[in-house]
Amino acid sequence: xxxxxxxxxxxxxxxxxxxxxxxxxxxxxxxxxxxxxxxxxxxxxxxxxxxxxxxxxxxxxxxxxxxxxxxxxxxxxxxxxxxxxxxxxxxxxxxxxxxxxxxxxxxxxxxxxxxxxxxxxxxxxxxxxxxxxxxxxxxxxxxxxxxxxxxxxxxxxxxxxxxxxxxxxxxxxxxxxxxxxxxxxxxxxxxxxxxxxxxxxxxxxxxxxxxxxxxxxxxxxxxxxxxxxxxxxxxxxxxxxxxxxxxxxxxxxxxxxxxxxxxxxxxxxxxxxxxxxxxxxxxxxxxxxxxxxxxxxxxxxxxxxxxxxxxxxxxxxxxxxxxxxxxxxxxxxxxxxxxxxxxxxxxxxxxxxxxxxxxxxxxxxxxxxxxxxxxxxxxxxxxxxxxxxxxxxxxxxxxxxxxxxxxxxxxxxxxxxxxxxxxxxxxxxxxxxxxxxxxxxxxxxxxxxxxxxxxxxxxxxxxxxxxxxxxxxxxxxxxxxxxxxxxxxxxxxxxxxxxxxxxxxxxxx
Length: 509
Hints:
By secondary structure, this protein is α/β, with parallel strands linked by helices. The protein has helices at residues 39-58, 61-77, 79-90, 94-111, 114-117, 153-164, 179-190, 205-213, 226-238, 261-273, 291-306, 326-342, 377-380, 396-405, 419-428, 464-470, 499-502; strands spanning 2-4, 18-24, 29-36, 122-127, 130-138, 141-145, 168-172, 198-200, 219-223, 242-246, 252-255, 285-288, 345-348, 367-370, 387-390, 408-409, 411-415, 433-436, 452-453, 456-457, 472-480. The protein has two domains: 2-247 and 457-474, Aldehyde Dehydrogenase, Chain A, domain 1, CATH 3.40.605; 252-452, 3-Layer(aba) Sandwich (Aldehyde Dehydrogenase, Chain A, domain 2).
């Protein structure tokens, strides 16, 4: 059976004392085992990072950018094999896996422009003979702790900007699907990155705590559930680190009476059920305004949901594949039962779905609830599966309050033809990322990603200029040069003796 080990520069450590199973979600079978590291493994990686980082920081930004360019080329050349490897451990269909990788590469493309974005500010003549300028310098060693649902995109979001800024980076990916992060790190080394600058350590809570406590790590970026995000933020800050910790979500889609319902249904089919709903930017709650809108939307949703094809990851006709493991499947099915117990109307029940020939796979059919209310626990919490809930709102103001008052504030969307309503909604809603007729409002790489409330802990967002700010520290220099009568190497050795003489252009003849 395949073993997935750490990718640490320098001398190898002892054999792994603990291992964790890596499943193929399509079959339910164990396909590999991954090492679960200890603080000793982390210390080895830290030692290698400390040895390599000063030289990498001293490498000029243009040369660092060239590594990013080469890495992008290598990932694109290996796209098919990476996507199949990702799907085999996560379960998402190949098209979604390629999208996972591509969205990460877009941040690498942004990182290719690092020479420009690292430029500081300059003020000439801030005082008599005084100039002031600033520079952005790397923090030293950073770490990323990433979730199972995007094993390529989120590691690339973090590591690309951090490394381009001159830092060494330690990645602790999810132990559920660890192979693609390791492969990406290998391709980064192939692109010319010095050993020790990007390393991968595997593990569970023991490794997470070691990262949060290690004094040599200056900054930690995390994506996961909100409770763990809060824990990571609090413990990391107490240890004196800079921390950004992205948590869970319960994104809403507001459907105004004038919306194009056919387009809304098409958007919801992908946004609510794509990747089996295992996305923090999924759209699991739809809020039609008015019963007439709700009834019409429900009528159009039913045939669309029933036509969704659930299949193995390699099925090109499948809309989505299995969830990541049996425990997560059970968690999603438990939330469906909770919704039933709370009195929501279960219109489509995806529990008990089995795919012929893959009966042991971790599949769940699509589910649809109607008449969900804000008091229900199944509405308040993140289900993270292929479940769509309809929460009816009588008017615009009620629809606006629902996402604004929810504990999560990651993303929200509004579907309307009315520009004024869209503008008013975008300005007033208490959520970090807004889509207007866009169901999954993930910003492009040169903007930044980040939610509000319990969806994010910390003050700086992911990627874009926010990412550059997170992975660097600003140094500001105030300088004044005295107008001395002589320059170094002046008249005594035949050079110019006065400052003004130093700038005289000699004449010919």
